[in-house]
Each structure stands twice: as structure tokens, then as C-alpha cells.
Amino acid sequence: MSVTPMMAQYLEIKAEARDALLFYRMGDFYELFFDDAAEAAAALDIALTKRGQHEGRDIAMCGVPVHSAESYLMTLIRKGFRVAVAEQLEPPEEAKKRGSKAVVARGIVRLVTPGTLTEDTLLEARAHNYLAAWAEVRGEGALAWVDISTGAFHVAACPQVRLGPDLARLGVREIVLAEGETEAPAAIAAEQGAAVTPLGRSAFDSASAATRLKALFGVGSLDAFGAFGRAELGAMGALVEYVELTQRGKLPLLRPPRMEAAGTLMAIDGATRRNLELTVGAVGGRKGSLLWAIDRTVTAGGGRLLERRISAPSTDVDVIRGRLDAVDWAVTDEASAGELRDVLRRVPDMDRALSRLSLDRGGPRDLAAIRGGLKAAETLFARLAQTDLPLDLGDLTGQEALRETLEAALAAEPPMHLRDGGAIAPGFDAELDEVRTLRDEGRGVIAALQGRYAEATGIASLKVKHNNVLGYFIETTAIHADRMRANDTFIHRQTTANQVRFTTVELSDLETRILNAGARAQDIEARLFAALRKQVIDAAPAIFAAARVLAELDVTASLADLARGEDWCRPNVDRSRAFAVAAGRHPVVERALKSDGVPFVANDTELTAEDGAAIRLLTGPNMAGKSTWLRQNALIAVLAQMGSYVPADSAHIGVVSQLFSRVGASDDLARGRSTFMVEMVETAAILNQADDRALVILDEIGRGTATYDGLSIAWATLEHLHDVNRCRALFATHYHEMTALAAKLDGAENATVAVREWEGDVIFLHEVRAGAADRSYGVQVAKLAGLPDAVVARARAVLEALEEGERSGGAKPKAIIDDLPLFATTPAPAPKPVKDNAVEARLRDVLPDTLSPREALDLVYELKRLV
Question: Which residues sit in the known binding site for ATP?
């Protein structure tokens, strides 16, 4: 069977799309065929149909409407697909000029992948969407990353051992790797949830990358951007080539690359990020994370900046203090900070609007976003320039002319799409106003012309009419025909029995303009929009700079609002090895408790290490708050070094270079790792990497194996932290034997979480005190958890037998087991039933509402005798 021209075109384009699903534009639908249709129909849960045959088989087909395609794209991208979008490159009328059976020209205009999204509906407004590329040259690695929706472009040295932590920090959605060298880095990327895309090795060539980058930024040298090595150049060049490939030559407005210097950010690996739930909660999403607890930003740009700072706290004391000074100002000058937040609430997302405009995917509302952002920037500069806010506000000004042009040109509420019309404000362009008048008020224009002609000829009965044959014409009675012919303005068209019809050059021209007014109005708006878009793109560097300052102002004001509302304090951050927190609190737990009206019990931490290690060995029962105390101190370090106030009465934080946390239990069965194996891998990473300025949080090391094995591992781990790593560490354990180490190791001290026992139950005080716990209260916690009374009672008996055996000289486990009736062949007797028949019988006759207090008391005594 011969292939139809349309199907031949489809197969040709599909060969270009390769492994991507092909959205093939046909009128108002994107159609998918063959295997693409089957996969898409299953993923999108839409109907799978068929259209003709190919090579003797039915052609599977499905489709989605063009107007709602973004929602389907979002589903496909989230399920791991890549989508090539093939659009019609000409109107059908143009194709018909080549013959009645000619196929409309089509071509791929965009490749949609996880790291190349720009539409608001496909992105999280308050989170970056990073695309990265990693290159390695002679053992030196580098990572480049870009968010094409905002233009942010960065590069950093990144050996392969740092690839996982850096991908975790950035939350990279997609990474480009050189073909043939992807196995190890691809495995690392997959572990961090990034989609892996191989690219030809030539894209990573440093020499051609340098040429490509210089052309992109219009410079003769890259020295102004930084001193880049071959690996950095290769990663950046591959990134730019891939973006150009997916956008089909339409590069977004990328900012000049910023080199991230080594050692300027707190190092936090992926396991620690998960354990501390910095930006993602335990069940996914933001809820329950530190970001969720503190985010009071009111702009999308501010939300993204806050996430970046939480993900990568600074280690530069000057930077940290500068940020804290700004928050200080907003805390102190509450009135100015309040006005600042009121203006910021109206600030649109200029970064993403500008990126869409640069890719020619923007609409009138993106221009309106630039207009609104620039107006807010000017307003804030006028209000804040006279204050002592320690931030450079210079980038908020300088675009008054562009803002005035946009205000004059754009409608107050422009439509979503340019094709909807009405984007340009009335009065901005005389030609557009005239065409709109013709389009919208054609009858009135004709009536005005009729009146003018009647007055000029003196014929009051003269009419301008219309029919489908002649179009518009001037009609008068036959008796006035000679007067009309005598006027050279009027041209005879037709004579009927009683009427004579004329036209004029003006009327013919007006008719043409009225008939074409709608299309003409669209053409004029498109031309004006293109001119405005060009002006905005030409001003992109200044707009990006203004957006950056607005985001920084938002973060500053939001952190101040948080500090005032939650009674947080400014931390003292310096270059010492101090770590002293008075009345510290866990920000996430405190927020959760506050919603239930329960106060949080604050605790002190003293972990200062002038020379050598500083370790606190924490013991106490489960549920007493050990993990909370450990985590809250780590979060206080993150907050302090990101430039925020902290939840405490006071805090002195010597800069933490690395943050490690091994808290909680999880397995990795997909990679063949048990819970204990995961625990050991993470512990090994800490012991192999932590330096003397690190803060290490360890909870229950060794609990996943036999008691003596676990104790020995925990013991050796603590000694290694003290002797080799020489860091600051909080170490929680149930192995009470380890408390003896506090007397042997300088800088190591015991701490415990206080509890009280009352009538066999345990009451958690959640107070961390100096000293060691004498036991773990596990049976009491089991009772609180709801274990059956029989199980709890039996557990107490077993525990007493085991403890007695230990006190009497270490009885053998088998001897103890033999003495326990639980393990005898005869089952333990069933509990004696409660004697309650007589009580029930007596209570059946009682009417509680009729009893006096004395009668009720007599009844209690009576029931007591029946029991």
C-alpha cells in the first residue's frame, strides 16, 4: 500500500524526533500515530483510535486539543517522556497554491524535556527548573546549570564525587552527559531524580565551546565572566548547544555565566538534605519542610531565592552579616518593611516573562508583567532611597522610558494571547484606532459618510446601502441622477427601474478597509507587539537586575516578618568554632505544635570547640525529643548561615563548613541495600569527609544489627569523630555503655532528655540536661503506642528477668528463656474474666438523671460490694 503524502511527511518528521513523542499539528489538534499514539494514550488515559493503514496494519492514532495541550504536556513530562512539537509552518491557503492535494508544510519547532520548560502551567512558580551538563577533562570535572525560564546560568568545579551532592542541592531536573561516558555519572544523576540525556562528545569540546559562548554573549573574551578551565567550558558549551537544539535555534536570554567559587557554600549531601527535610517534606512536596515553615515571601522570584539560600547557606561571614544587617533594618523599621511588602505583593514574575518573550512564546501579559515589575521597582526606590536599608537599590531605576512606553502602549488588562485582540491600548497608534473603529463601528462610519454625501449633493434622500453583489453603493432616485452624474466624485454603477446607484473611490476604499479591518487590526497589533518585545529584550540586563533586587527585598522583608512574628533572634556568626544556642527551638515542629495550641519546650546547646572536637552524647527514651533536638541545631546552623534570624533566645554560630546528618531509618531495596546497609553507607560518607569545621548529627548508629555489633560500631564511630574528624557533633544513642566515653574523651560530654515515671507510665518533659539516662523506657513507650496490656505486662516480666540475670552475674540467655513461661509448651492461662454480671444487672435499672448526689454515692458503694 502506498504511503499518503501526509503520512510520508509524518514519518520524515518522526525520524527527526527519534525517541521523543511527536505532537503533529493538524488544525486544532496535535495528533500522534503508531507507537507514539499507543504510549501517549496509555499515559494520558485518552482514547486510542485508528486512521487508515500502513504496510498492511492499522495506524494507531490519538490526539489532544491545541488549546489544552499544556496540561497534557505536563503529564507526559512528569511521567518521563520527551515531546517534539511539530507545527504547521504555513496556512492551508498557501499550501493549496501548490496544488489541491499539497500537504501543509510542518516542522519541529521545539523539543519539550524536563529541563527546558518555560510555561507557567508546566513550572512551579516558587522553584527553579534546572537543566545541567557535566563534563570531565583529564580527571577534572565541572557542572554547569541553567534555568531557561529565568535565564540564571552558573558553573562550578565539580569532581565526580561531588556530583551527587551538587545535583541534590540544585534539584536538577535533567542533565546532559557525553555519549559513551555516562554510566557512572548517569547512575549518580538517576539516584538524585534527574533525567539523563546523552549528547555527542563534540558538544563538550572546550575550544568550540569558548567560541560558542563568546558569540552568544557578544564578547571577544570570556575573561570578564571568570577564569574557566577546560571542563567548565565544556560543560557550559554542551549546555548551550543542547538548549539551542531543543529550542530549534531560539536561544532564551541567558545571563552571563557566574562562576561559583569552591568553599563559599555550606556542603550538604543528599542524605542530609533528606534527613533534615530542608526543602522537601517526608512525604514529598514542601509541606513539613524547613522551607514550608519559614516561607513568607510574596513574589515568585523571592520564593525561588529563599529556596536557593536554604539549599546553599553561605560560609562567607561578610555575606552572612550583610544579609543579617538587611533583616535587622526590616525588623527595626516595621512601618517601612510593611510598605515594602505591600508593594511587593503586586510584583509579577519578570524573570520568566522575559524568558518567554525571548523565546517568542510570550504574550501581552508577559509585557504587562514587565510593566508592573518596573513600576513597582520605581515605587520602591522612591520609598526606600531615603531609609538606611543596607542594600544597593541602584538597579531599581533607569528604565522609566521603557515603563512609560509600556504603560502607554498596553491595555490595562491585556488578553492572554495576542490573537485575542485588544492588547494595545486605545490612543497609542492612530492607524490601529482607525481600523478598530472600522471593525467595531462600521455602520456608524458609513452613516457619517452618507450624511456628508447628502450634504454635498443637496439630496436628502441619498442613501448608502449594501448587498452581496455590489457591496457598498450610493443610491438615489432617478430624478436626482443628472445631479449625481454632474459631480465627478460619483461613479455610476447600476440603474434600476426607480433607482440609480453610484460609488466613489473613497467608498470603495472604505469598503475594502471595513471588510479587512479585523485582520488588519491583528496585523497592526502584532507589529506593535513585536516592537515592544524588542524594546524589552534590548533592556533585558537591566530588567534582570531589577528583578534580582526585588527578590532580595522580598526575602529580606519576609525573614523580618518571620522573626517578629515568631520571636526569633539575630545570630552572631563568626569565624570561630563556637556553637552556643540558648533556648533553641525546632521551627517546623514548633509551627505544627502551635497550630494545636501546644507550646514547644526550648533547649540549650553548648557545642563550642576551641581546639579539638566538641561532642554531646545524648541518651534517653524514644519519643522524648532526642531527634528533634539534634535536627533543630542543624536547622539553626542552616538558618544562621543563609542570613536569617533563628528560633532561639540567643545563638553564637562559628561558621559550619559541612553539615552531615544520619537520622532515621530507610532502605534502598532497588539497589540491594538493607536499612542497616544504608545507615553504614551514610555513616561512612560522614567519617570519610567531615573536617574540623563540620557539624555532624548522628542518631542511633548501629541499631540495625545485633546488640554487640551495633555497640561496637557506634563506639568506634564516636572515637573516630573525636580523634580524626575533630568536629562538632551531636550523637544520640540507646547504648548506655557509651556514656563512659565522656570521661575518657576531651570535649565529649553526656546529655540526656529528662522524663518522669508516674504509676508505671512515663511522662516526657522534652528537656535536655547534662548527665546520662539510666534506661530507655522502651516498655513504657510501647504501652503509650497502644500495645495490648498482655503484651506490655509480658514485656515487663521479660525485661525484669533479663536485668536480674545481668545483675546476678550475666545469666545465659537460654537459661533465662527456659525460666520464662512464655516459651513453655503449655500456653499461659487466659486472663480471669471480670465479675461483672451482677454489676450489669444492677445498672440496667438505674436512671442516672433521676439520682440525687447522695443516691449516686450510695450506688457507687453498692457496686463496689458487687465487684
Answer: 620-627
